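Re: the 132-residue chain
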Amino acid sequence: KLTDLLQQYATSFRDPMMLQPPEWFKAFIYCEAFLQLPFFPIAAYAFLKGGCRWIRTPAIIYSTHVATTLFAILAHILFHDFSKSEHVGPQTLRERLVLLSIYLPYLLIPLLILFTMLCNPHYKHVEKRKRK
């Protein structure tokens, strides 16, 4: 049933990357599986507990990594010639924008995390140096 759901999604939104991912997209999937997914429970703990300033650096690394990968994916959606794909891809600008809108939240959330870590005074850690 999950395979049918994936097929239905890929057909409805014209997302051939889900059915036949390019090699660079597979690399992003492996990064997500082995780097990003383990980060989620750690980040959830830190954000739910509150007051955990140690999450700042890992959150900055996570958010910049995800944002970087999403820029490549969004550029591929906007500029790639999908007419040569085995599976149907977006052909019109409207279809590309619909597919783009599906991936866009995966960029916005990490950017919000990055903005929070960089601008929120709670996460700005000022080290006090000891005077001799």
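The chain has one domain: 2-123.
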